[in-house]
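so the lab meeting is tmrw and i was supposed to have these ready like two days ago... anyway. pasting both below. for each one the top line is the aa sequence and the line under it is the structure tokens. i havent really looked at them closely yet so no promises
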Amino acid sequence: MLKPYQFTVIIPVYNEVDNLLRVEQEMLAFIKVAIKKTTVLFINDGSNDGSLKMIVEICKRNSDFQYVSFDKNYGLSTALSAGFHQCKTEFLGYIDSDLQTSPSDFNLLLEHASDYDLITGVRRNRKDTLIKKTSSLIANNIRKVFTHDGMEDTGCPLKVIKTASAKNIPMFKGLHRFLPAMILLQNGQIKQVTVQHFPRIAGEAKYGVWNRLAGPLTDCFAYLWMKKKYINYTLETTSNE
């Protein structure tokens, strides 16, 4: 009997047709060395560049690959939320389809998966433009002021989360920027691990300076409202005991 999957890698895709063959190759290489048996889940977020056709072809020739596809573009938070709720493994991961982070680094995060509810990568040697790095730094500092989550690089698109914790996150648009903070609201444990970072080779970035700064600022107020209203409790006894 084949060992059941333990880890699902969620890959949101929006108009990344030029990157998908490379994604396939790198994920196949990772599956061979992964410390937990891994399956891949593409979330096609309404791509209109041929990405869906290529995703379907990739899934047909690789039994470890699956996909779901939206009828239109809903955004990254929605894609992640769909991935969380589709996931059936004990652990899930998330990586961007631009491959500016490496699937091989999932093993660095998975080493801590049993002891933490979320492990996030930190891109300490980023290969981005000065404008992109500066805007991300400002946005990250804004979030830290509001969340006090201690995260150096909340926006790093390489994370591992316990699936049960991920499914308890009440997702809204923009909340992908607050995943560590939302795990802390559950009294969960989080950890940061340094990972590799690479220049974008193909395709176009989906975020500019404006939505890296204005979006996080407005989302911080939504987070504060969520934090104030968040329901968290622990059962002491039940009638079944």
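ok protien two:
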Amino acid sequence: MTSPVLILGARSDIARATARAFAAEGHPIQLAARHAADLQNDKADLETRYNVEVTLHDFDVLEVDRHDAFVDGLPVLPGIAVCAVGKMGEQADNETDTAAAVAVLRSNFEGPAILFGVLANRFAERGAGTLVGISSVAGDRGRASNYVYGSAKAGFTAFLSGLRNRLCKRNVHVVTVKPGFVNTAMTAHLDLPKKLTADPAEVATAIVAAVNKSRNIIYVRPIWWAVMMVIRNIPEAIFKKTSL
């Protein structure tokens, strides 16, 4: 029997596509998000289209003191958990509005990391499981255009690396996903270059393949690996004068 897949942040475009991709392989799906009852249409669509069991679960990534209770309240411990939670915000707002910056940092790093820490302990105790964290190429190097969001993703990337190192001997796998630009509601206001921009279904396909092949770190479009390698290796004396 295929293992249940927990989708955290289930309302996002990437999360919805990922739920469909795993359901297509026969996995039962656990959709977790704030106001989860609003996802009844998603639940019905997945059940009808793929003939899998789908359950809805209220979840707020910022309520870190309730993460243990959330995991323990699931009908069954999932075999795979995908964190699609994220909040980009506007860099200008993040620079001047403390509350805005806090929301971005907590949504992209603190909340996902604490929740994955809880799941990691449960998976390690069981001796099986896969954690999939959606990070970002923005975390590969801090840039003036989005360094608050980027630093939060950098922290999450480092956290996932540490978990992978810790859990590899416990038969628990950790996948770090770096999508690059994606056509979603979160980026709808941006003019994105087509060659560097994926759609949610492409990200979802890459995630399922990474889980099935036990990949560690993936750039959804390989070109991003080359782009970020160049950016990471620009000397700081030059880099600080750029406008990236």
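from a quick look at the 2nd one: The longest strand covers residues 172-178. The radius of gyration is 18 Å. will dig more after coffe
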